[in-house]
Amino acid sequence: MSPSGEATPSDEPDAVWPDESAEAQFLGEARERGEPVSAPPTPAAQPEATETEPAGPAPELDELVGRLPPAVRETLDELFRARFVRVTRLPRKTLAAGKG
């Protein structure tokens, strides 16, 4: 239980995620009530990202940090104590894996 006494998802290990029919029923009821409903895009509807290797070497770290407005750099430092230490290229599929 959470400190407020409410159940949290981790408190109910046997909780079942709704199946597609339950989701469709919920969306249908929401439409009947006049609520705006937008279904998430299906994987088939999303265009396939093609991996293209950027031309040339990665920019220098100082150049990239210099592109950030001073206020953004200060806020990052205050909130996260963020320090920029290197530049690394990541494949698009790595970034797309976090979506959804």
Question: What features would you highlight for this structure?
Answer:
100 residues; mainly alpha; 4 helices
How is this structure best summarized?
The protein has 100 residues and is mainly alpha-helical.
Oligomer: single chain
Can you summarize the main beta sheet? none
Q: What is the share of helical residues?
A: 25-40%
The string of secondary-structure elements, in order, is HHHH
Strand content: under 5%
> So what's the overall shape?
elongated
Number of helices: 4
Mean pLDDT: 77
| Amino-to-carboxy terminus distance | 28 Å
Contiguous low-pLDDT stretches (5 residues minimum) are none
Global structural class = mainly alpha
Number of strands: 0
C-alpha Rg (nearest Å):
22 Å
Describe this structure in words.
Helix content is 36%, strand content 0%. It is mostly helical. It has a domain at 17-41 and 55-96. The radius of gyration is 22 Å and the shape is elongated. It starts with 19 loop residues before the first helix and ends with a helix.
Outline the secondary-structure elements.
Layout: H1 20-32, H2 61-67, H3 70-80, H4 92-96
